[in-house]
Specification:
224 residues; alpha/beta; 7-stranded mixed sheet; two-stranded antiparallel ribbon; 9 strands; disordered N terminus; disordered C terminus
């Protein structure tokens, strides 16, 4: 998720600040219930290590449960999120990891500095007209050939979530997308999609997973 002064960003930040403690309580077990997601995360970790390792960004990390899982898999992972409330919980629950307040729509990382990047059900609040900007930042900060792992809700259309995680008031837009649309956005943004699948699990009634890699440019041995 991003940071800034836009209405949807402010609403998203305020919503997750409000639900942070109950969100952590209600979601911290989900990876234990989702073996397919754990397998995907393990594959992502293997791909990062196969390219020599290095820092990995979990963008839209929330309370850090996936960040911590990747850390247990041996990655040098750090989390970035829009919500100070979510990050407060993340730092308390995972004191050995690094978490920073940051913007998916204006990612404050240097070019080609991360070995891998994951956005785990965090693109779901980004409107269509901001996706290109977000993916451009993802490509910019990834090293050429670096893996990108996305998880999202599969479907069509947008709903507004007005309460959640223990009945707290929220105002967040939840965007559902099809694989072909996501794949086209990734291709246009300089990524090669290597694998994608749809699954049903505790994470999502109908979830999409895409594993892609950053294409290089004309100066890179990875090619264009």
């Amino acid at each position: 998720m991003g940071s800034g002064t836009g209405g949807w960003l402010d609403d998203t930040r305020a919503s997750y600040d409000t639900v942070a403690v109950d969100y952590a309580r209600m979601t911290r077990h989900l990876l234990a219930d989702t073996p397919e997601e754990r397998a995907v995360l393990a594959l992502f970790a293997d791909l990062v290590r196969a390219r020599g390792g290095g820092p990995v960004a979990d963008v839209g990390c929330g309370t850090g449960r996936v960040t911590a899982h990747l850390g247990r898999l041996g990655l040098d992972v750090f989390g970035i999120d829009l919500s100070p409330g979510m990050l407060e919980v993340a730092r308390r629950e995972h004191p050995g990891l690094r978490f920073a307040l940051g913007s998916m729509t204006d990612l404050d990382l240097a070019d080609a500095t991360v070995a891998g990047l994951i956005a785990w059900f965090s693109l779901i609040h980004i409107p269509d007209d901001e996706i290109g900007t977000v993916l451009a930042h993802f490509r910019r900060v990834l090293r050429p050939g670096g893996p990108l792992l996305l998880a999202f809700h599969v479907g069509d259309g947008t709903t507004v979530k007005t309460e959640g995680y223990g009945g707290h008031p929220m105002k967040v837009h939840v965007h559902r997308r099809r694989h072909d649309r996501m794949n086209a956005w990734l291709d246009a943004s300089g990524f090669t999609v290597e694998e994608h699948e749809t699954l049903t699990s505790a994470e999502s009634g109908l979830g999409g997973i895409i594993l892609a890699r950053r294409r290089g440019d004309s100066r890179s041995p990875d090619g264009a």
